[in-house]
Predict the 3D structure of the following.
Amino acid sequence: MTRPTLMLGRAPADRLIDELRRGFEELSANSGPVTMQTIKCGESAAVAGYEKAVRRTFRRVGVTLRGSTFPYEVDDEPLIEEIDRANDDPSTQGVLLFEPLPPHVNAELVKSRLSPDKDVDCVTPRRLGDFYSGQSDVAPATAAAVIQMLDHHAIAIEGKRAVVVGRSSVVGRPAALLLTFRNATVTVCHTRTLALDEELRRAEIIVAAAGVPELVTSDHVSEGVVVVDVGTNYVEGRVVGDVHFEGVSKKAKAITPVPRGVGPLTTVMLARNLFNLASAGE
Ligand code: NAP
C-alpha cells in the first residue's frame, strides 16, 4: 500500500505569502501603506488563536493591523459605530470582524453595516452576492483555502464527484460552490443526510467541515479518495479534525492533516482578499 500524499498548508501558504508581500510592496509604493482594521468582542480562546494567526500572516505580507477590542457584553451600537468609522477611514483598506460574535449581538445587522469595498471575509450581502454569482475575486477564506490546497497538490477537480460534509455559510456552502465553479459534481451533506456513509463512499474528493471529531472513518471512504479536513475540534487539549486521519490515510490518495493542513492557508486567503480589495480601490 503506497502512502498518501500528505497535503500540508505550509508550502502553498509560504508561496502565496511571497507573492502577496511583493504585491503589497508595489501597492504601498504607488498609493501608500495598506492597513486592515480588526474588530473583536471579548477574549475567547478560539478567537485568540485565529487572531494570532492573522497577525502573523499580515505581518509577513507587510500589512499593518489596527485592532479594536470590545468587551464581550458590548451591544450592537458601539460595534456599528466602529464599523462606520473604519468604513469612512481612507487609511484603512479592509475590515475583519472576528466571529463568532457574542450571541446577544445581531450579527447579520452588524456585518451588513460593513462597506463591501472593505469586506475582507466576504460577509456582507453584496460581497456574498458577487461571490455566489461567480463575479468576485474575494471569497470566504476557508473555502478558498480548500481549493488552493487541492490546486497546490495538483489534484484534478473537474468532473470529480465531490462530497462536502457541512453546509455552513462560512465553510461548507462556499466550498461546495467553489468546487462547482471548478466543474466538480458536488453533494452537500449535513445532519439530515440519510446515509452519510453511502454519500462518502461515492466521493472522489471529500471536504469535511462538520465540526465533529473524527466523523469520517476509513469504513466511509473508497480507495484513492482525496480528503481535505477543515475540522478544528478541541478534544482533551489537542486539536483533531473531522476525519480519522490514521484510518482514512490508509485508503486515501491524498489527505490533509489537522493541524498543519488547511489552517495555515486560511489567513493567507484573507490577505489575498485584502490585496484584491486594495488593488480595486487604487
Ligand atoms: P458549523 O457552522 O457548526 O456547521 C457545521 C455543519 O456541519 C452544519 O451544516 C451541520 O449540519 C454539519 N454537521 C454537523 N454534524 C454533522 C454530522 N454528524 N453529519 C453530517 N453533517 C454534520 O461549523 P463551521 O463554522 O462550518 O465549521 C466546521 C468546522 O470547520 C469546525 O470544526 C470549525 O472549527 C472548522 N473551521 C476551520 C477553519 C480553518 O481555517 N481550518 C475555519 C473555519 C472553521 P446542519 O446544517 O444540518 O446543522
Summary: The chain has a mean pLDDT of 96. The first helix runs from residue 10 to 31. Residues 142, 165-168, 170-172, 189-193, 196, 209-212, 215, 230-233, 262-263, 266 surround NAP (CB under 6 Å).
